[in-house]
Amino acid sequence: MPDLPESRSAGQTRLRSVPVEVRVCVGHARPTVAELLELRQDAVLPLDRRIEDPVELYVGDRLVAYGELVEPDSSGTGALGVRLTGLVDGGAA
Q: 66: how many CB neighbours lie within 10 A of its CB?
């Protein structure tokens, strides 16, 4: 039975309400196993990026956007947010 326009619209509406997980990558580290075993509380693991460098946003394994870390409100809660600075072209892998 072919989809009627009304049912397709309802399906699209339901699909829009499906939550997706967005991961934000702020950098990478490549320590040796020995370096990992030496880590203790308060140790700092250096990343390959600076604090002002863009972060990457992923949905699943797909890079979808770039952004910068921000504090979304001035309440002093320390919460983080991401301001989008660029979208990845839909043809990118």
A: 16
pLDDT by 10s per residue, the chain, length 93: 555 555 778 778 888 899 999 999 999 999 999 999 999 999 999 999 998 999 999 999 999 999 999 988 877 788 899 999 999 987 544
| Residue reference for tokens 């989809």 | 3
Q: Could you tell me the CA-to-CA distances from 64 to 25, 60, 80 in Å, in that order?
A: 12, 10, 19
Number of domains the chain is built from? 1
**DSSP symbols for 42-81:** T-----SS-TTSPEEEEETTEEEEEEEEE-SSSSS----E
CATH number of the domain to which 52 belongs:
2.30.330.10
